[in-house]
Amino acid sequence: MPSSFKPNATFFERLLSKLKLGPHEVVYVGDSPVDDIEGSAQAGIRNIWVNRKRDTFTGAIVPTYECADLHSILEWIYSDPTH
Asked: In terms of domain of life, where is this protein from (predicted)?
C-alpha cells in the first residue's frame, strides 16, 4: 500500500480505518491550516485549529473550531456534549 501524507485525505482515512472509527466519531486537533485543518476536513472529520500565534486563517476550508491553546478545547467540548 503506497504511503500517504497530510494533507492528503487518504492519510486521515487510513487513520480512521486503523482506529475503526468513522469521521463523525473523531475530532482532529492540529496547528497547520493546510496539513491539519484542510486535510482532515476533506476526509469529513471535524477539526480544531490550535492558533497559538493568532494568525488569520486563509485556507479554503474553515475550521470547525479555533482556539488559542489546548486548554480551550475542553471549553468547546463541555459547551455542547454533542460535539
From this structure: Bacteria
